[in-house]
Amino acid sequence: MSRITMMHALPIGLLLLAGCTGHNVTASSPGYVALKAGNYAESTRLLEASNIRWPNSPVDELNLGASYQSQGRMDLAEPFLRRAMTHGHGLMPTHTTKDWAKGMTVEEVACQNLAIGLAPATIEGTATPCQTTLVVAVIAAPGPVAPLYRQTSYNTYFEFDKATLTQDGEAILRDAAKEILSNPDRRVALVGKASSIGTDYYNMDLSRQRVETVRNALIAAGVPASRIDVRWVGERELPVSQRDGVQQPLNRVVEGVVK
Question: CATH 1.25.40.10 region(s) of the chain?
Fold first, then answer.
């Protein structure tokens, strides 16, 4: 049996990393202790709070994703695991809860958790769960298979009650602009969103400000305005469910799809 096949049969692998992201996660950190003990409701509560305080920590992102995944909520786990892949590139753990994760980077463990929890990204299985690009085969009937095209998502996240770009957001939009400009037929659809804290009117306007920030950044990077479609929905169409009064960083977003 191959190594990958064996891993699919194993429980979720989790890891701990100390001191690389501006705060220390240790073997005695409450969120990690609860996660290791299988107290997922408590680990989710603690790790959500830590993620709000340190929103770009690959450790918290991975552990929070794993906590959601352990409860069967891959819809909530996947965004955190993919962010851990981005922020955890090349970072090595000091502790793991599963032996198979030893020697892996944060990025590799996050990817393996996705492979355990997700089906292949296409019906033909041509994309792995760790790809952020969805590959779609367009089939004419009758006739041969048409050329493949790529549809890529670029989500730009914002700090609480802000409509200014973070450093991560600037990097994401640089990549998005390069892909859009790689082909004159490419265009991007942007949808501005805001979390459900505050009034509906306020959040609608905040989502408008965020999507305009992203649009202006793409135009500044050389993308023609005619190739950018924009709308904003406030606290409607939220990516993840949100309890009243509880911050949810994944809902403070402008979702972008390059077609």
Answer: 3-117
